[in-house]
């Protein structure tokens, strides 16, 4: 038998890693790999319509299944088209392997046809990247790449493979240098002293809060399970970042909802007034902290994070614990033993007082468009009518994303797919496609905005081709609502270029791609429209027309403290000083 | 509006890395991407099989930024170890410089005299010029160069700092 080529080694390597799907798009520099995939039943290649779609689909697959997503694209424009998704995965700690074709080694650096410096371009938006110059290195590189992408703080890894390396067979004489090394060993567990110190602080806290984040999801379902146990032992109030939603049940009486810029009043007030904060797999993002010098001024802070660079990055903490959420929670639970929780009655009574503000209450009708559906109501009804199916919900970016976070309650992890760190419009539909492939029996809904959905609208064709019954629920407010809201707040309502002009007829568009299209225009048709969406066993676009003037509240304006939230009924239009304008 | 700045400290970092393509770009790129400063950077491989390199970086920034620089460096897969020599305790710092001075008569004699005081070696000479080789702590080299400026300094090449802990400990 002839020796396997680089491409054959690559495909075998993917199979050895348990890869089921490759999201990709062919081109000259990856033809040898595509030929190798031809007729191979062991891996399913999903042909997207744009390489960004491949990247986001891989992200959605990864977030929904906990397994790494795999992307295959050609050199030059194929690779550069994938960069946004790579940067997105980097920001949100999503495990992903991106295989990029490259011009043959002899042509690298000559401005060859479809040459781009993929390694240079992706250097700072990948956890690691490789240019493989010899097929003998491929097997070990793939093995290491998967290990790096999936362990420690997960992230994207790019493997750039010149076309000649795909075709050549490894020379017998040259063993790979990579095989022997076992570099990269993330620290998983805390020391006994750290656990003892943390326990001491938590057990004596009078006003504790657990501030949980995406790291709990990254750590796997076991971490969410242990988090529930730990909360049960300590009885502590608990909040979550956007990325952590689902790691703790939203219906639990001690859950305060999301915190941060569009978080609840009670979560932000409790963060501000707590005496011990336990940050578990969250990274003190600026959307969460608000003004740093006013962030939780009187608390002792514990930070559990697998990435040491997250600790003390923006907020100095009293006890940093480098370790995996599940492992450290397990250690804390074991050390807690038979202790009784503190009496937190007084603290919880104060929280109940903040809760009584009902910060998520919104006007029944819009002032400008009293006959239109309120977007918050649309999400509440969507939640009420779909929750029994425990759907996977993805989003695009904007007001609809925040409303989904606020009004769609999540009970378990890996059900919520959203672009948090990079905030990439166009993420949601391809992510839903990836999730649907990974979870074929799940109901998968992309909660979208009419502007964002147009950023990767071409992926409608991908869902049609693979008969994926994803649902796209567009909150159509005819505006880039989030931009419009900021213009209302900071630029005296000068709505510069934020109107969604010349929108397509989304129902006709759906039908053109073989999807079902449903339009919901009046409040009384909302439930029927949602039910019709669920009843259809193929893909559906729902164009849900909502009041265009609704704002996403509560809101901590940029540069403000947790205690300075804007709530419904507050006057919001106006302007800001330059310092506040400079913040994002 | 004002652009915010904070007070800086100078730190010398010794970084051991896998000697692989792109590692230097990863490190220097990290500094530019995150807005950190590099005052000097030296690199050479240090193991028999050329598999490991040692990079010495002199940087400055507020303490929190220095801590971030170290942890961000440690995050890079090919980085084995980062030691902040400045924080770790007594250490030596040395730099090598080549300094060319041109002149005649009294100036030339004076340059040579000062070079002797500094224990600089003459590694090249013509009737009208010297090239001095000087090793030492960076401030010693600074003062030598300042003196030579008055005596016909033509050009300077500096290696950047390499550093090592005093005593038994490795690094
Ligand atoms: C329009 C818009 C508005 C937003 N508003 C808000 C808002 O109001 N509130 C909000 O919370 N967010 C908001 N975000 C999202 C925000 O930008 C950040 O993405 C988010 O807050 C980060 O979540 P996180 O802290 O959980 O960290 P992630 O980005 O999820 O990072 C996870 C952290 O956990 C660590 N980690 C990873 N794996 C493990 C493990 N196994 N064990 C331990 N630690 C681990 C990582 O090192 C990292 O530090 C908004 C985004 C957009 C686009
Ligand atoms: C790729 C990209 N470009 C620009 C932005 C800035 N941005 C954030 S939200 C938003 C508007 C989104 O509008 P839409 O999808 O209609 O959502 P809405 O806010 O109206 O719910 C824009 C332009 C972004 N997040 N991503
Ligand atoms: Mg909109």
Describe the structure.
The complex is a heterodimer of chains A (584) and B (171). Chain A has 584 residues and is of the alpha/beta class. Helix content of chain A is 36%, strand content 15%. Chain A contains 22 helices and 18 strands. Chain A has helices at 6-16, 31-37, 51-65, 77-91, 118-122, 138-150, 163-167, 192-203, 214-218, 221-234, 265-273, 286-289, 325-336, 345-355, 375-386, 399-407, 428-438, 460-465, 481-490, 506-512, 526-535, 578-582, and strands spanning 21-25, 44-47, 69-73, 96-102, 128-131, 156-162, 208-212, 238-240, 255-258, 276-280, 300-305, 319-322, 392-395, 416-417, 444-449, 471-476, 516-520, 540-545. In chain A, the strands form 3 sheets. Chain A has a 6-stranded parallel beta sheet with strand order 2-1-3-4-6-5, with helices on both faces. A 6-stranded parallel beta sheet of chain A has the order 9-8-7-10-11-12, with helices on both faces. In chain A, strands 14-13-15-16-18-17 form a 6-stranded parallel beta sheet, sandwiched between helices. In chain A, strand 10, helix 12 and strand 11 form a beta-alpha-beta unit. In chain A, helix 15 (375-386) packs across helix 21. The longest helix of chain A has 15 residues, at 51-65. Chain A is globular. The model of chain A has no long low-confidence stretch (mean pLDDT 96). Chain B is an alpha+beta fold and 171 residues long. Chain B folds into 2 domains: 9-88, Alpha-Beta Plaits, CATH 3.30.70.260; 91-164, ACT-like. Chain A, domain 2 (Alpha-Beta Plaits), CATH 3.30.70. Chain B contains 5 helices and 9 strands; from the N terminus they run βαββαβαβαββαββ. In chain B, the strands form 2 sheets. In chain B, strands 5, 6, 7, 8 and 9 form a 5-stranded antiparallel beta sheet that branches. Chain B has a 4-stranded antiparallel beta sheet with strand order 2-3-1-4. In chain B, strand 2 (40-45) and strand 3 form a beta hairpin. Classes of the chains: A alpha/beta (584), B alpha+beta (171). At the A-B interface, strand 5 and helix 22 of A face helix 1 and helix 2 of B. Flavin-adenine dinucleotide is lined by residues 92-93, 153, 213-215, 218-219, 241-244, 258-263, 281-283, 285, 287-288, 305-307, 310, 324-325, 397, 401-402, 420-421, 423, 482 of chain A.
């Amino acid at each position: 038998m002839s020796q396997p080529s680089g491409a054959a080694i690559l495909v075998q390597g993917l199979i050895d890693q348990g890869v089921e799907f490759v999201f990709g798009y062919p081109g000259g520099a990856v033809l040898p790999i595509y030929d190798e995939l031809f007729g191979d039943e062991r891996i399913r290649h999903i042909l997207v319509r744009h390489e960004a779609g491949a990247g986001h689909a891989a992200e959605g697959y990864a977030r929904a299944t906990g397994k790494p997503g795999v992307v295959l694209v050609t050199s030059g424009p194929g690779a550069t088209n994938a960069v946004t998704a790579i940067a997105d995965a980097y920001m949100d700690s999503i495990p992903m392997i991106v295989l990029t074709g490259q011009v043959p080694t002899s042509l690298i650096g000559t401005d060859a046809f479809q040459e781009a410096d993929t390694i240079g371009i992706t250097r700072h938006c990948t956890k690691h990247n490789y240019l493989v110059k010899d097929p003998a290195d491929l097997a070990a590189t793939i093995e290491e790449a998967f290990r790096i992408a999936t362990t420690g703080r997960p992230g994207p890894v790019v493997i750039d493979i010149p076309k000649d390396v795909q075709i050549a067979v490894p020379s017998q004489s040259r063993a790979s240098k990579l095989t022997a090394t076992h570099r990269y060993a993330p620290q998983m567990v805390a020391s006994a002293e750290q656990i003892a110190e943390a326990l001491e602080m938590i057990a004596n806290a009078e006003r504790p809060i657990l501030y949980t984040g995406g790291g709990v999801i990254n750590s796997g379902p076991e971490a969410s399970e242990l988090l529930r146990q730990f909360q049960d032992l300590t009885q502590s109030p608990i909040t979550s970042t956007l990325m952590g939603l689902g790691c703790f049940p939203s219906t639990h009486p001690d859950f305060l909802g999301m915190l941060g810029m569009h978080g609840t009043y009670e979560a932000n007030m409790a963060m501000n007034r707590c005496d011990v904060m336990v940050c578990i797999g969250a990274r003190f993002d600026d959307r969460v902290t608000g003004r740093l010098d006013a962030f939780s001024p009187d608390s002792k802070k514990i930070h559990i994070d697998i990435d040491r660079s997250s600790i003390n990055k923006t907020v100095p903490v009293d006890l940093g614990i480098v370790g995996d959420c599940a492992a450290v929670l397990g250690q804390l639970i074991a050390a807690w033993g038979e202790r009784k929780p503190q009496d937190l009655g007084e603290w919880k009574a104060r929280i109940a007082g903040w809760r009584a503000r009902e910060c998520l209450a919104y006007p029944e009708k819009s002032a400008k468009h009293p006959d239109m559906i309120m977007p918050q109501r649309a999400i509440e009804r969507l939640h009420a009518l779909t929750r029994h199916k425990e759907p996977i919900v993805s989003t695009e970016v904007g007001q609809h994303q925040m409303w989904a976070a606020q009004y769609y309650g999540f009970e378990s992890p890996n059900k919520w797919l959203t672009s948090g760190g990079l905030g990439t419009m166009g993420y949601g539909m391809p992510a839903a496609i990836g999730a649907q492939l990974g979870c074929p029996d799940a109901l998968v809904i992309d909660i979208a905005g009419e502007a964002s959905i147009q950023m990767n609208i071409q992926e409608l064709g991908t869902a049609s081709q693979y008969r994926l019954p994803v649902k796209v629920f567009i909150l159509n407010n005819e505006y880039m609502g989030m931009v419009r809201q900021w213009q209302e707040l900071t630029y005296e309502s000068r709505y510069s270029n934020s109107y969604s002009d010349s929108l397509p007829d989304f129902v006709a568009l759906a039908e053109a791609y073989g999807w079902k299209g449903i339009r919901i225009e009046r409040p009384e048709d909302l439930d029927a429209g949602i039910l019709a969406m669920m009843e259809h066993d193929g893909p559906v676009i729902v164009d849900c027309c909502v009041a265009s003037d609704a704002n996403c509240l509560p809101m901590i304006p940029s540069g403000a403290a947790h205690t300075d939230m804007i709530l419904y009924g507050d006057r919001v239009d106006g302007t800001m000083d330059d310092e506040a304008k400079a913040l994002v | 509006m004002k652009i915010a700045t904070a007070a800086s400290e100078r730190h010398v970092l010794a970084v051991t890395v896998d000697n692989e393509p792109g590692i230097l770009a990863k490190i220097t790129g990290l500094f530019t991407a995150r807005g950190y400063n590099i005052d000097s950077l030296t690199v050479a491989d240090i193991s028999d099989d050329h598999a490991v390199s040692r990079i010495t970086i002199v940087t400055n920034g507020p303490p929190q930024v220095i801590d971030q620089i170290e942890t961000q460096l440690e995050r890079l897969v090919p980085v084995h170890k980062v030691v902040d020599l400045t924080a770790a305790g007594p250490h030596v710092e040395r730099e090598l410089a080549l300094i060319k001075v041109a002149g005649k008569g009294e100036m030339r004699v004076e340059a040579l005299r000062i070079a002797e005081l500094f224990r600089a070696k003459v590694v090249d000479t013509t009737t009208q010029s010297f090239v001095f080789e000087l090793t030492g702590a960076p401030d010693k080299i600074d003062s030598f160069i300042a003196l030579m400026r008055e005596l016909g300094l033509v050009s300077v090449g500096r290696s950047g700092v390499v550093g090592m802990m005093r005593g038994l400990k490795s690094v």
